[in-house]
Amino acid sequence: MKLVNKADLVTAVAKKAGISKGDAAKVVDAVFDTVQEELQRGGKVAVVGFGTFEVVRRGARKARNIRTGEQIDVPARAVPVFRPGKGLKAAVAGK
How many other CB atoms are there within 10 angstroms of residue 10's CB atom? Predict the structure, then answer.
């Protein structure tokens, strides 16, 4: 299994789009920035066939420190999540 980092992604985008790596880096950064800004505003980003990025609110809960057994309070928080779309699921499954 290969890990694709941002530099690899930029290279792949540049090659597929037939643009320079510098332009591809600007595009990749713009996409990531736009998704982040929309999630910070409480919005959702849906790319049909690919998936949806959104923020899910996790409630406060009690947990246990596994070393000491002490019970601790975990505060509520907002967590970004990605839900893959039908097209992505099918592509990964090989359909």
Answer: 19
Contact (Cβ atoms closer than 8 angstroms) between residue 73 and residue 62: yes
Pick the CATH number of 44-95 from 1.10.760.10, 4.10.520.10, 3.30.365.10, 3.30.470.20: 4.10.520.10
Cα 57 from chain centroid (whole Å): 16
**Which residues are bridge partners to 74 per DSSP?**
61
What is the sign of the dihedral through the CA atoms of 89, 92, 21 and 19?
negative
Q: Give me 38's structure tokens.
A: 């929309």
pTM above 0.90, yes or no: no
- pLDDT, one tens digit per residue, over 41-80 is 999 999 999 999 999 999 999 999 999 999 999 999 999 9
What is the DSSP secondary structure assignment for residue 18, as one 8-state letter? T
